[in-house]
Specification:
Keywords (chains A, B): DNA-binding, Transcription, Transcription regulation
Number of domains of chain A: 3
CATH superfamily of the largest domain in chain A: Response regulator
CATH architecture of the largest domain in chain A: 3-Layer(aba) Sandwich
Radius of gyration of chain A: 25 Å
Mean pLDDT of chain A: 93
Protein name (chains A, B): Transcriptional regulator, LacI family
Organism (chains A, B): Shimia sagamensis
Helix content of chain A: 40-55%
Oligomer: homodimer
Distance between the termini of chain A: 59 Å
Shape of chain A: elongated
Structural class of chain A: alpha/beta
CATH topology of the largest domain in chain A: Rossmann fold
InterPro entries (chains A, B): HTH_LacI, LacI/GalR-like_sensor, Lambda_DNA-bd_dom_sf, Peripla_BP_I
Number of strands of chain A: 12
Order of helices and strands of chain A: HHHHEHEHEHEEHEHEHEHEEHEE
Amino acid sequence: MTGQKIRNMEEFARVSGISRPTVSKYFNDPTSVRASTRSRIEAAIEQHDYRPNIYAMNQNRKLTKNVGIVVPLLSDPYFAEIARNLEQRCLADGYRPTLFSSHGDAALEVEVLDTLRAMKPAGVLLAPLGRASDYRALEAFCKDVPTLIFDSSVQEIGLGFVGSDNFQFTSHITDYLCRTGEPPCFFEMKTPANPNAHRRRQSYVAAMERFGFEPDVISVDGEGWGFEEIGRLGGYEAIKQNRFSTNTVLCSNDRLAIGLLTACYEQGVKVGRGKDCSIRVAGQDGHPHSRYTCPPLTTISHNYDAVSQTAADALFAAIEGQVTPWKSTRLEGSLILRDSA
Amino acid sequence: MTGQKIRNMEEFARVSGISRPTVSKYFNDPTSVRASTRSRIEAAIEQHDYRPNIYAMNQNRKLTKNVGIVVPLLSDPYFAEIARNLEQRCLADGYRPTLFSSHGDAALEVEVLDTLRAMKPAGVLLAPLGRASDYRALEAFCKDVPTLIFDSSVQEIGLGFVGSDNFQFTSHITDYLCRTGEPPCFFEMKTPANPNAHRRRQSYVAAMERFGFEPDVISVDGEGWGFEEIGRLGGYEAIKQNRFSTNTVLCSNDRLAIGLLTACYEQGVKVGRGKDCSIRVAGQDGHPHSRYTCPPLTTISHNYDAVSQTAADALFAAIEGQVTPWKSTRLEGSLILRDSA
DNA sequence: CCCAAAAATTTACGCGCGTAAAAATATTAT
DNA sequence: ATAATATTTTTACGCGCGTAAATTTTTGGG
């Protein structure tokens, strides 16, 4: 960093000995200028620490390089993890990601979408709240902004959908549980926030019927996104009332399972597959925390990398002009065997 | 939403029957125009769904309404929670928050700061990585942008510091442990990422000496931000080698404690204060997850609301012109008694 | 060395809004 | 009602950059 402060691209062009339109071209796409020009500009950037004014840049551009990433709840490490993954893929492809959380609130989700619209982003990666979402608002947004839906599918809106194959998830882990012990009961929320939960229940029922077992679904009360507490309270009641018809419980997701494990602990019910254990508990999601429960949680994990990779690639392709019909991609999960089941 | 699309403020001013400069004034501060004018503008906004172009708005403004929020690691629910809190306080005060995570990487932290600088924010709420931070970069940033440091203090830079009183934290929970059973050993990382860890160790040693007990600090290896795994591996070794001189372990933070609990589980060491238990474990932070460990973790919790409130208020006051000398505010935590200790 | 193609330069305009200054109008106090 | 004050309107310019068109320069191949 030498010399006096550069105020704008005009001045920067002068000191770097390149014309302003060429410099502008460079900032829009460094590969669009000749290599020798590029290195001269880059030397000048290095020397004068110049960065174009992002507001002036985006004002006249039809398409900014901004990408919005929206998740339902950033304080859920699952979403935090996938958001981080997406963020870095955006950066790697030269986009400027901005992270938003709906904080589990449909009104906030709409506000986020409004904010996003004002940003005129090149595209948006959106994980909707699900059941609570204002569907019409999402639909309208998708019409204005290239949007790829991930994690939880809401009709056929946007450019497409990328997420996990919930049928495969539940089918696979139900299979595992059936083969290694008593067939599982299914532990879920009565009114889940997320539509994936319905698919998982259906898949459980189908898998059980394939095995010739009687499905047993325990649906517990509770609203909102405090899944652990819902699992703990519901689990407490279920254990007390002896509502689990077998010694194995498959939870609709890991966070519920974490709550159920706490309920088991509090009632002295030993969890695991040892001979001294009275219940097996499994989750679904491969939640970052599942490794550290006691006992460590058997679960079926999202393929975080593949989901974010596929989602980001699909969005970037669409941004760069590729037109493809609406498409749903559902990736398989992999079983993580631990001590809980 | 009626009529055709409004393209810019000029058109919007025309249809709303107000002059453009007045409309501009309204968008900068709705209270700066007469109530009757305000309601006419608001009616027109309602009707035409107009929003000014944020890029054009910010281009000429000396001070945008943007506020940056930077945390070291968004996938840590503690930071996610405090970030959420700060975000909503910004919104409530009419600022536009943007969330950033350094993802535990000092180079990324510097990049975030560069991005932030380009946004010309009114102010920034920054929780530094700590030990790994590029101190000179932080210092330079604080000179350019009004920055309030929170969570983890790095010299006397920025407008001030707001965080928890780590001495009080450790002193308080050490007191509790000493009074209710054997005095605690202290379980920590040898090279912690966060400077708060040093304060906590010092405070532990001081508290033990006050009681006339011999301090016993167990420092385990491990780099980075995977605290649970570090706690689990370090805990595993410590238990195996019988390195805890008493039956009580105070962990430097909750995430280490969570890992230690897993290590205990894996070695069949029963944790809690019951007669059948062989070890007591306590954490520090009041991590969102601490309620759901097995056994639930006794800890001393940050006052999330007060920290974010104080930090946000201090920043907003400075933005609005209030000049105050650099000041460090450290808030007390409160003990959360659960079954682990 | 010449020529066609590629790249850079010159010139010029416009984006949407902030903002300043002077004039006109509305509101409030006297 | 009148003066004093607060608000709004009119007018006008500029911010920093995107971008288009015409021109000039550079490049690489034969």
